[in-house]
Design goal:
The protein contains 5 helices and 6 strands; from the N terminus they run βαββαβαββαα. With 154 residues, the chain is an alpha/beta fold.
C-alpha cells in the first residue's frame, strides 16, 4: 500500500497527520501538487511537483495508483477513478469512498456544479474542524491496521 495525496487543496492539519502515520506505519507517502512542497525529511515521504494545468495532479495520481493504494482527496472524480482502479479514496474529513457510495457522490457533485453554472450561490464546505480531523485520523488508522494485518498474514 502506498498513500497518495492530492496535496494542493489538502489542509495542513491533514498533511501533518499523514506525515506521522507514514513514519509510524512504514508506508510510502507521496504528495502530488502543482506548487512546490516541503514535506519533512523522511525516507517514506516525497513530494512530486507536476506542471500547471487543469487536473494535472489528479491525472498523475489516477495513472499511478495501484489496487490497494490509498488516495487522500476531496475531488470526487479523482476518488471515482481511484475506486474504479481498486484503490481506496479518503476525504480529508474522514469519509471513505467506496463502490457503494461513489456514484451518489458524483451525482451530487455534478448537480451542485450545474447549480453554480446557473448562477446559484451554493457556498462551500465549512472550515475543517477538530471533529473532521479526528474522523480522518480514525479512518486512516483503520485502513493502515487492515494493511498491516494483511501484510503479516502473507
Amino acid at each position: 500500500m502506498r498513500i497518495w495525496v492530492d496535496a494542493d487543496a489538502c489542509p495542513v492539519a491533514i498533511k501533518e497527520i499523514l506525515y506521522r502515520a507514514a513514519e509510524r506505519a512504514v508506508v510510502e507517502l507521496t504528495l502530488v501538487a502543482i506548487k512546490p512542497l516541503t514535506p519533512p525529511r523522511s525516507r517514506f515521504i516525497r513530494a512530486v511537483q507536476v506542471p500547471k494545468g487543469f487536473d494535472v495532479a489528479d491525472n498523475r495520481i489516477a495513472q499511478d495508483v495501484a489496487p490497494g493504494d490509498l488516495v487522500v482527496t476531496a475531488d470526487i472524480p479523482l476518488a471515482a477513478a481511484v475506486v474504479a482502479r481498486g484503490g481506496h479514496a479518503l476525504d480529508p474529513r474522514g469519509e471513505l469512498y467506496s463502490q457503494e457510495n461513489i456514484r451518489e457522490r458524483l451525482t451530487m457533485r455534478n448537480f451542485m456544479d450545474e447549480l453554480r453554472s446557473a448562477g446559484v450561490e451554493t457556498g462551500g464546505p465549512p472550515p475543517l474542524g477538530q471533529a473532521d480531523r479526528q474522523a480522518f485520523a480514525n479512518q486512516l488508522d483503520r485502513l493502515l491496521a487492515k494493511h498491516a494485518a494483511a501484510r503479516r498474514s502473507r
